[in-house]
Amino acid sequence: MHGLSQFSSTRRSFLGRLGAYGIAPFLGGSRIFASPADPSHPSAQVPSAPRRDAPRSAVKNRAPLASSAFYLLPLGSIRPRGWLAEQLHVQATGLGGHLDETWADVGPNSGWLGGSGESWERGPYFLDGLIPLAYLLDDDALKAKAQKFIDWTLDHQAANGMIGPSSNNDWWPRIVMLKALTQYHDATADARVIPVMDKYFRYQLGELPTRPLRDWGRFRWQDELLSVLWLYNRTGSAYLLDLARLLKMQGYDWQAQYADFKYTQRITSEYIKLEGGGGLKDLALATHGVNNGQAVKAGPVWSMVSGLPQDRSAALTMIAELNKYHGLPNGMFSCDEHLAGLDPSQGSELCTVVEYMFSLEHALAISGDASLGDRLEQLAFNALPGAFTDDMWAHQYNQEPNQVECSLHRKPWTTDGPESNLYGLEPNFGCCTANFHQGWPKFTASLFMLSGARENDAQDGLVAAAYAPCEVTTMIRGTAVRVVEETNYPFHGSVRFIVSPASPLSFPMQFRVPAWAAGASILVNGEALPAPQPGSFARVERTWRAGDRIEITFSMSPRISRWFNNSIAIERGPLVFSYGVGENWVKLRTRGMTADWQVFPSTPWNYSLKVDPKAPAQSIVVTETGIGDGAFTSRHAPVRLTVKARQLDQWRAEDGAADPVPPSPVTSEEAEETITLIPYAAAKLRITAFPQCKS
Ligand SMILES: [Zn+2]
């Protein structure tokens, strides 16, 4: 545990490697582009909105809304540190900070800037991640990029209240823009936001009876409900609750789908009748991965209006069904891009990863269920970084737990095209290119939440909902409180918090104890507390004084989990480990400032593992090192596992995809080897679900 000094030294070396932040990095390819810090860069000329520096509390639910277990803090309350800060800088110096310079769909001719270009979801998608990235990093150049879209949207509202490009009147892209506007207001308090949203919602309430939600908007209504309730909590205008009920009434009934879940098999294009034309039908939309990822929050978000416990807990039912029929060892459900069954050679779309994370962040806040935090960490630490190159200049549309080749192949996707698992600018389709940006920033903004039902509640306190290095500054019952979290989690098991209220203050702190964390310990100023219960929040209530310390140690013993065909995956803490197949990267084509890549295997991959499932720790050797540049890269993997393995001759690949993992246990006559496993995300070609070798 090194805290500040560790961060500043890695940050320094990181800057040194890039030749100062913003100067064209040479990371995996030659790129020439303007520096965002360069005053001649056009975006640097745009004045950015003021930053809100004073600590703020969360805005809680206003009656008659049901109170939530926890509340997300305003954007900017939580700042990344350590490896997480570096990860956000990688995003900012990669495609995340430069997409508008190289991809016309969010470039100067975007319809969301008044141009004649792309005028649907891509501008709002980009903004939905760019805004939190810019404000978490306090990066003026990124803020200026976002400000252009915000200003155009706020300054070009139609007289009737409509927002956005006049070339379409689809509700769906506006749902995304509303998510961006709420974050922007939380960060800046720009006085234009609330009147624009209010006028838009009044307009929509009048329009919906004759122009109801359709297709994407109908299946994603709960994402708009979040913004409607956000405004209600700030204005108290009763019509917003009428709008909330109308959205629910017109929206797809996700809870009914999961009360009697019928989509238990791999979905095919024949089944959903895609080739019939005429746009996506209900069956296709109901089995669409991204829609299901977004829908995980539908019940909890609606429960704020209904007050019903069965709505509040509905996310658990959905996740259990998705896991049972489509679950994968990286924490995702398969969706390439429709639900695709349990085979770990199936893929998951990147949009689904980030939307599922966003759903979990809100479902966790509303319900207070610790298991949702476990799932959130699984996605954030495995599936999210796994879909990107180390420099975040290229991403995949579909990632696979057993991914032995990234090349132009049609197999095994349910409905996607041959580019789906390439690393590139917009493999298969550009939705993920625009939408991936929200993943890391919103995760950062959700690490701490506020407890307490109503304003200035005696139960106001801080909740560590997920773990990563960060600091939070907020107000608790009128007193400013700062907490610094120092950790190399998820790679190492110790987490230290230093609590600093402006003056001594009694309040509860709650710490999520993951379900896997049997044997965890909590010390407060060196004194041990009773052993915390896995799968719950450990609560510590006392009068906190500046410099108080909480030290949590999670046991990081390797565990075995069971998957398709009785295969095994090795987990440790929230990480799942993979065999990193040798990678041969071949550039397919240059794409502006980035490129599309194929990756071919240069080593065998068809290993079965020889581990004792009853005592996995005895057959797996763990080596921990410090975190260097790039926590999720193979060259600096901070944890490596070694394990005995034998090749399995009958396990082959066809058309770039590994055959289904052979049913375990298996026997092999091949020589026993010792192989090294690294975190899933570090292995861009990988085996994650292994056959178990009998002898
Ligand atoms: Zn996508």
Poorly predicted regions: 1-51
What class, by secondary structure content? alpha+beta
Residue-averaged pLDDT, rounded?
92
The percent range for helix content is 25-40%
Unique bound compounds = zinc ion
What fraction strand? 15-25%
CA-CA gap between termini = 40 Å
Major sheet, described briefly? 8 strands, antiparallel
The general outline is globular
Radius of gyration: 24 Å
Q: How many DSSP helices?
A: 21
How many beta-strand segments? 26
Protein architecture, described:
Helices cover 33% and strands 19% of the residues. It has 21 helices and 26 strands. The two termini are 40 Å apart. A hairpin with a 5-residue loop joins strand 15 and strand 16. With 695 residues, the chain is an alpha+beta fold. The structure holds zinc ion (ZN).
Can I get a quick summary?
By secondary structure, the protein is α+β, with helices and mostly antiparallel strands. 33% of the residues lie in helices and 19% in strands.
List the helices and strands and how they pair.
Elements: H1 3-18, E1 70-72, E2 78-80, H2 82-93, H3 95-102, H4 122-137, H5 140-155, H6 171-188, H7 193-207, H8 215-219, H9 221-235, H10 239-250, H11 254-259, H12 282-286, H13 289-295, H14 298-306, H15 309-312, H16 314-326, E3 348-349, H17 350-367, H18 370-386, E4 398-399, H19 431-435, H20 439-445, E5 448-451, E6 461-464, E7 470-476, E8 479-487, E9 494-501, E10 505-513, E11 521-524, E12 527-528, E13 536-544, E14 548-553, E15 559-562, E16 568-572, E17 575-580, E18 583-591, E19 594-601, E20 607-610, H21 616-619, E21 620-624, E22 639-647, E23 653-654, E24 657-658, E25 673-679, E26 686-687
Helix pairs in contact: 2-3, 4-5, 4-6, 4-20, 6-9, 7-10, 9-10, 9-14, 13-17, 14-17, 17-18
